[in-house]
Design a protein that fits this description.
Elements: H1 10-21, H2 26-33, H3 37-47, H4 62-81, H5 83-94, H6 99-109, H7 118-126, H8 170-173, E1 180-187, E2 196-202, E3 208-213, H9 218-229, E4 239-242, H10 252-258, E5 261-264, H11 274-282, H12 298-309, H13 321-332
Parallel strand pairs: 1-4, 4-5
Antiparallel strand pairs: 1-2, 2-3
């Protein structure tokens, strides 16, 4: 086996196609092609054809793999050929723009004659040549390694079909009844540990509750929600809508503890719980992502929720969430 790496050729890919079709082990493929097994594994992983519309045709094909590899190299060279465009993209990433926002703005403004899609920017960020720039740290989730598409494991076992948001009663969706909440988790920078904050917002009044958690383990999070909501009358805590984060997998404890139903958004659809998402955008003004929660107490969070809940809201006719929430409690008592 050669110690110097050379690009895989079309002839290599043709041989590899037959070996893959014959289900030959990776180690044997590497031996026959005179390559390291990691090279073969990476080649198959990166250049296998996938089509959501035609899943029966998914597989490794030599000419298709050659085309995928050439397109990937062409995309990376695009930013090398246009240093001004490259510098503009770097500046926007450092300003915390997402690759999709950057690509969309470049297209809408028409300032660049070179068209760039979000995939080109993602590949640029994680490429071997430019990884040292550390641009990944400006992405929303700041992943050191890019997570492949379709890599998220299905969670239907933890969140059964009977609890999907499509099964949620219409009166919850149209805000016609009081006592239905949305929940989410605010995550802070990793160097400060695993502490986080549960955000809960009542859909009709927009009344917010913030709860500090030491970790993302589901049952302790649910126990804290139960303790916080137990003093409320049953009509004020009828249901909760969450996303499919594993921190909410223990949702059955809410039904047992306070008699509340739980509903879950569709995968990758956080907009389906837009009330709490909107509230989460307000909180970083007072509690930025760089906050060390070790120095933030639950009392501090209570002061913050008091401040948020006492701001007049246009959607409430410029009444405050506290005023609307209190009025509903009095009506139901």
């Amino acid at each position: 086996m050669s110690r110097s790496y050379t690009q895989i050729t079309l002839a290599d890919r043709r041989r590899l196609h037959h070996l893959v079709a014959a289900n030959v082990p990776i180690n044997e493929m590497a031996r026959q092609l005179g390559r390291h097994r990691s090279t073969i594994y990476r080649e198959i992983k990166r250049n296998t054809f996938h089509d959501r519309e035609l899943p029966d045709y998914d597989g490794y094909y030599s000419t298709v793999a050659e085309g995928i590899a050439k397109e990937r190299r062409r995309r990376l060279r695009k930013l090398q050929r246009h240093p001004t465009l490259r510098a503009e993209i770097v500046n926007q990433l450092e300003a915390r723009w997402s690759p999709e926002q950057i690509a969309g703005r470049l297209l809408s403004d028409g300032l660049s004659l070179v068209r760039v899609c979000k995939e080109t920017i993602y590949r640029f960020i994680y490429s071997k040549e430019d990884y040292g720039l550390g641009l990944y740290q400006y992405l929303p989730e700041a992943r050191r390694k890019r997570r492949p598409m379709r890599s998220r494991k299905p969670r239907d076992g933890a969140f059964p079909a009977t609890h999907r948001i499509s099964q949620r009663p219409d009166f919850v969706g149209d805000r016609s009844r009081f006592g239905h909440w949305e929940g989410d988790l605010l995550i802070f920078q990793r160097p400060f540990g695993h502490a986080n904050v549960t955000t809960l917002v009542e859909r009709k009044s927009r009344y917010a509750v913030l709860i500090k958690n030491p970790s993302r383990h589901s049952r302790p999070i649910m126990d804290k929600i139960i303790r916080a909501f137990s003093p409320l009358p049953a009509f004020a805590r009828q249901s909760f809508t969450f996303d499919r984060g594993t921190e909410f997998a223990g949702f059955r404890a809410l039904e047992d503890g306070i008699g509340a139903c739980s509903w879950f958004c569709d995968p990758s659809a956080p907009w389906q719980k837009g009330t709490v998402e909107n509230t989460n955008k307000r909180i970083p003004r007072y509690l930025p992502g760089t906050t060390d929660l070790a120095v933030v107490s639950q009392r501090d969070l209570l002061h913050l929720t008091h401040h948020i809940n006492n701001q007049p809201r246009k959607c409430l006719g410029y009444r405050t969430p506290t005023e609307v929430f209190t009025a509903h409690l009095q009506e139901g008592s």
